[in-house]
Amino acid sequence: MPKPKNAFHMEPPPILPDIEEQLREYIVCTEKLPIHEYERNQEFWPRKRDITSLFEFTDSPLCSTLRINRDPSTGKILDFIEVPIKGAGANARNSMSLSRAPGPPTETVRGSNSNFPFWPGSFPDPLADLSLKEEDLTSELLTVAPGLDRGLYFKSDGVTVTDEPEIIDSSFNTQNPDAIVNIIDLVNQEKTMLDIWQTPTNALKSSTEDSYNTFTTTPEEEDVIPKEAPVLKITQPSHIVNRDTLWAVMLDCSKPVTDFNDRIPEMAHKYKFELDTFQKQAILQLEKHNHVFVAAHTSAGKTVVAEYAIALSLKHMTRTIYTSPIKALSNQKYRDFRHTFKDKSYDRFKDVGLITGDFQINQTAGCLIMTTEILRSMLFNGSDVTRDLEFVIFDEVHYINDKERGHVWEQVLILLPAHVTVVLLSATVPNTIEFADWLGRMYQKKVYVVRTLERPVPLQHYLYTGTGGSTKNNRFLVLNETNMWVQDGYYKASESIPPPAHAAIQKKYMPQQEKTLWSALVDHLKRNDLLPVVAFTFSRVKCDMNAKNLSQTQRSLTGGGIHLL
Ligand SMILES: Nc1ncnc2c1ncn2[C@@H]1O[C@H](COP(=O)(O)OP(=O)(O)OP(=O)(O)O)[C@@H](O)[C@H]1O
């Protein structure tokens, strides 16, 4: 019977489940969670069997190829020979070989930091090691198959297999030289056994003496045993006299090379002037792909050698990398080389590129100019550019002596692959031979040193004591072009300074005095047509200050004004 509906009838209030109780149940009784009702949540698709899928496989790299053997006179095919493919399956992530597969085009120039570098030329040849191992293969053969306790037992005929190893009585075998007892050996052994019982101090003494005898060398031996290659101080006087060593050859630049044109009838690059002897000697070595170290004074013509290396590699359709220590020099060389090579029959204009931190121009060019740090990063990252690299030119290589950055030159020289020829350019340094010897020993290839002390631009030293006005032309020669001291010039310079100022010369100049001095000097040089000039200041702050002062006072300077280096 339905319940009567009246105004006073009220349903009992809904009793909500206790939230605390609900949460506890949720946390404690995990089996009630819907996730466990997998029958409702999970769907299962049975796998269909596909036998034909067994026939599918990813291609493994080809390990061998067929080489056709032809008759050289008729061209008729005589035979097919299966030859192994070098570096099959090798790539930049698993191999240091030059025959590994090239990386993607985006990584051609810079490489990638997940790449292996190419095998450095200064390391022992891995292929030579491999051939040694192959020779030794017979002694390293496995005699027990992996997973088995023992190998096969053979009878004495070496062919018939048995269940038990055959015991050969070799206790007295005159055929076996090991079985012959040497009495002298036994006596010696006994003597050493007896030595054990000597007093510990004696034993200790003899052991120290032994180790001393083992590790020390006699003076004669010292000449024979190669010492470990030191990190060189390239500008420090050498203990090696300037004569040939095992790995460095000093070329004679005192006599003219009369047969130069016969030896190189078709030069890769022609010059408007007759080459100097040191340039000819260096070029002859470049043609033979020998490492060359050119040490010559500023403006002696070192760049000529670098240009020839670039031209030679462009002729061979290979590459050259020109490294310089500073970005400003790289930029300047880029401009110079573009100009040098632009008129050639082949399109060399496009064959010069620049890679620095600021610019990347024509990165796939035949001649790339970059800072040494960029080349180091390319070598570490296994850049594919190094594959067809013929020459690497190191300008101002004496930077290897630099405390902060010298290690970069060392690393690059060590990392270069063996097929690369290095051309080192430097101002004259006292130990060229020592440096070349270090390099040659590392590469196990001779380095040819070309050294000239001639200065095409004679160096003269003057003292300038003027401050403008009547003293504006006070410039006195104190060291002439033959490196002779000019006493008279020095006296005149001393006399030209008034006594109070003369005393003040020992002290520091006031900024205003310094400004007047620089201004008077530059003015004097300008009037005597001796500009441009490079002014050295040993403090950065002073350098900025002088540059600022000069740009204010010498507004009329033509041809580019003042540049800070
Ligand atoms: N054999 C030569 N005869 C005449 N002029 C030459 C000869 N060799 C080089 N030059 C010229 O001398 C100038 C300086 O040469 P280069 O720039 O090659 O010198 P460098 O030694 O490289 O100088 P730096 O030390 O500044 O690098 C250039 O103008 C070059 O054309």
UniProtKB/TrEMBL annotation:
Do you know which InterPro entries this protein is assigned to?
A: DEAD/DEAH_box_helicase_dom, Helicase_ATP-bd, P-loop_NTPase, RNA-DNA_Helicase, Ski2_N
Helicase ATP-binding domain residues are 283-447
Keyword Mitochondrion part of the UniProt annotation:
no
CC annotations in GO: Ski complex
Question: A GO molecular-function term, please?
Answer: ATP binding
Q: Which reaction does it catalyse?
A: ATP + H2O = ADP + phosphate + H(+)
Biological processes annotated in GO: nuclear-transcribed mRNA catabolic process, 3'-5' exonucleolytic nonsense-mediated decay
Could you list this entry's UniProt keywords, alphabetically sorted. Answer: ATP-binding, Helicase, Hydrolase, Nucleotide-binding
Designated name of the protein: DEAD/DEAH box helicase
**Which organism's genome codes for this protein?**
Popillia japonica (Japanese beetle)
